[in-house]
From TrEMBL:
Gene name of this polypeptide: spoIIP
Region: Disordered, residue numbers: 134-164
Transmembrane segments: 21-40
Protein name per UniProt: Stage II sporulation protein P
Keyword flag Cell division: no
This protein's UniProt keywords: Membrane, Transmembrane, Transmembrane helix
Amino acid sequence: MYRKSRGFVVNLNGAGMQKSFVILSLGTAVIFVLAGILFASQAGRGLSSQQVGKMTVAMSSGVLLHTMSYEIPYFEAVQKNEENIDVSSLAFRLITSINPKDPRSFLGNELPGFSLFDTEVLVSGKELALSELPFESSPPPEALKKEGDTEKAAPAQAETEKPMEQEVLSTNGKKVFFIYNTHNRESWVHAVPEARAKNNPDLAMDSETNITLVSKRLSQSLEKNGIGSSVGTTDFTGRLINRGAAYALSYAESLKAVKAVMAQNRDLNYFIDIHRDSLRRKSTTVTLDGKSYAQIHFVIGMRNKNWEKNQQFALKVHNAVEKKYPGLSKGIFGKKGGNGEYNQSVSPNAILIEVGGVDNTIEECYRTADVLAEAIAEVYWEAEKVDAKTKPKRS
């Protein structure tokens, strides 16, 4: 008895099938050509962590969870509650670096000076609107003129501190932190008569009542946590005014001071440049346990080739702040525009911190400086413990 063999014949003579075959062939060829061009242009370069970071930032949490669920079943259940995945939008962003929801991605490479607003969100606790992103603005000429006799608001008195129970850890007199202010005359609307009268935050500049007060408070709080620190007192803005130099040269001026103190004190390893933001009160203030605080955020200069190390230090401080005071830190932002380096190449532990904005009070900034000092101390002493364990023991 013989089995009947069954089969079927596919007719490739149809016009529709021929057309589909041609389109499929051309599409495959185009993909291979584009892939070849892409890899040829990147020959000799590895995929950097910066590029990987940009790709993951472009992905929503839903996409990441969906991707991870292929290997970790737990995420399959979690990602069901996330938003729908827009694969076409994701692919468009990865290929073109254009985000349809962010107009800066259309304009950033075409308009001169627009790079000043090219801020990358490296770490954020919440989704931020464009109006909430930090930006660096130069004060108008009238704010930088040589000052005459004007009425000045007296600095607010520091709040009474509760005595610490016991100071166990100490740097034993060594100054390991250097705190300075590149834009040292940045002040507040409530402290500058001209700014109050015109309600113009760009005029909030003063030679006495300014952001240097916050640096001094931060240094005092670090000392109470056993960490030796010093505060730079150079009036960089005043120097530029006297020379008739552009305000944009502020970082070049402050870099000289940083290098000078590094040469004088080899124990210095941490450098913090304190600023205040130009945003208004609603974007720079948070209320915690019935008290108002000036919010902070960290700025990382991405023109520094080792910027990721600086980001790691900033991330540790950010996490330490958020652990105890959720919402106080707005996150970590990377910038290539403007100066784009912010003196951070001098050390992997060099960061720029914006404390509050033009409408915050000195009391709010002081509260934040105390919290910031606690977080920095926690990170510092943890790093010291790790270093002590890794150092070889003497026989």
